Amino acid sequence: MPGKSFWVLVLSIVLIMVCVASAKTGDEKNEIGGTIGRVFISDQGIQAPIPNPTIHSGKGLTFEGEYARRIYGTELFGISFEGVVAYNKGVKLNAGEYPYSVVPEGYKELFVTPAVRVNLFPQTAVSPWVSLGGGVTHFMQNSQLLFGGANPGKNTTSGTLEAGLGLDVKVWKQLSMRGGVRDFWSGMPDYPLAPTGKTRQHNYFVFGGLFWRF
User: Fold this and answer.
1) What pTM does this model have?
2) What is the CATH number of the domain that holds 24?
């Protein structure tokens, strides 16, 4: 997907979130917050006769922003529409060896995934939750290969499924802590010199942070 089309899609998702937030739907509650953590990506085997034929991915430091609007709630459970935007600032790669330069030095990831979240016992001090949604992931590759040379791979965008679970703990008034893990099941980065035979990968985001309910 061209870069301009990707940002049009992101803007459309943000506008949908704003419209939902401004709707009058009784006693719904809003929340906004941020988390920080790391993304874990499984190794991928390369289908080529080269030394070290496995793509090892580093655990990139990742920042996430969340906005949610509760659309239904009881003492037992609450259902919220949430918008999740997470940015992985750098996945370092390792595969092959000199002079077999087959992967970029690394890449960045941007996840944009609207979702539905269900909290158990939302009015208590401790509330477990699960989340399920879908959106897009944008991969931004380094221009150089790991062991030298220009990277022929391209920046790409793929459809992404999101599934998460975690725990909310009230800290003070409307302020709460949130910890959990999300799996962004996305497409693969473009590796023209390192075919893996796979089209998708799991990006496990383990995080913690704070949010404010209003």
Assistant:
1) 0.86
2) 2.40.160.20
